[in-house]
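Quick review question:
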């Protein structure tokens, strides 16, 4: 009896540990409790079924039924562990690639941004570039931003200390995960609450309330030429910031509004299809797909016949 009790206790403890590990690993995934509870219920039902037919199982296949059943369970466990290792390896490579891509975006974006900085009156940053800027200026850590990326942004921060062209969005959206928009896993925070040396989760969007800030609203509302070359948030899960940006820009009826880059245009079309269709023939809007070409032209100080670059240069001369 004692031996059986010890075995039952050991198996129960192992099951509890596995469930705890799965709960921790799946944190942030929608409906994880329902899936895990369902799996545990199926496991319990399977154990009761085996116990119910234990006698028949032992006598099956000329008395070798129990051994064959045990072998089948072990083979299934080996197959599941092998699949788990393959999946983890694939996921790890994909995660590393995503981080490298984000770092590449920072390094590629900072250089032309520095050139644009000298040719405009105001600059607004979004996405990973804004995250990097915040890290460099406020000495904070944000998930997904590397020290190497921060080093690239420090020059821009130093340049802006005296010229103060960068208009900061005061409210941003912090998330514990990047995989989706899960209730309870994201929140709006204020950059005024940043503390030097502090660590924060993924910053995945600009809170729409930021566009009601006096400095932000004034910068957009009084601009004569507006050049948009990216989205504000991590789409498609976090798109409210981009929607608020486009709607706020549209309120400025006098400005020449230019949207550059295929991804930027596609998100504009997806997020605000009504507005997009209504401004297709509007003379104050200019759409072009070669966002990278425009950035290069601005960086080198030559319009290359591109109307958006010419407009930016001419507005600066005026």
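Suggested answer, residue by residue:
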């Amino acid at each position: 009896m004692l031996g059986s009790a010890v075995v039952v206790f050991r198996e129960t403890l192992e099951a509890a540990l596995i469930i705890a590990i799965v709960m921790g690993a799946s944190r942030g995934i929608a409906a994880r409790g329902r899936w895990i509870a369902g799996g545990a219920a199926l496991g319990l039902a399977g154990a009761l079924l085996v116990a119910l037919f234990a006698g028949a199982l032992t006598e099956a296949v000329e008395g070798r039924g129990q051994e064959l059943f045990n072998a089948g369970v072990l083979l299934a466990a080996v197959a599941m562990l092998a699949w788990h290792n393959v999946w983890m390896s694939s996921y790890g490579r994909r995660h590393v690639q995503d981080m490298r891509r984000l770092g590449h975006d920072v390094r590629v974006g900072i250089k032309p941004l520095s050139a644009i900085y000298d040719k405009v009156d105001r600059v607004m940053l979004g996405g990973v570039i804004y995250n990097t800027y915040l890290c460099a200026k406020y000495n904070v850590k944000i998930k997904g931003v590397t020290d190497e990326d921060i080093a690239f942004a420090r020059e821009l921060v130093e340049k802006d200390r005296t010229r103060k062209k960068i208009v900061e969005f005061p409210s941003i959206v912090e998330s514990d995960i990047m995989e989706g928009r899960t209730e309870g896993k994201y929140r709006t925070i204020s950059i005024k609450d940043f503390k030097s040396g502090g660590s924060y989760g993924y910053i995945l969007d600009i809170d729409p309330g930021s566009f009601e800030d006096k400095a932000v609203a004034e910068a957009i509302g009084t601009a004569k030429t507006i050049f948009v070359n990216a989205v504000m948030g991590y789409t498609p899960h976090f798109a409210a910031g981009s929607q608020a940006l486009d709607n706020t820009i549209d309120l400025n009826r006098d400005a020449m509004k230019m949207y550059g880059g295929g991804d930027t245009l596609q998100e504009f079309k997806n997020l605000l299809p009504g507005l997009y269709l209504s401004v297709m023939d509007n003379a104050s809007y200019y759409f072009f797909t070669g966002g990278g070409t425009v950035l290069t032209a601005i960086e080198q100080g030559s319009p290359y016949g591109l109307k958006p670059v010419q407009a930016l240069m001419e507005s600066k001369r005026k």
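Why it works: The chain is about 60% helix and 10% strand. The chain has two domains: 2-20+33-85, 98-317.
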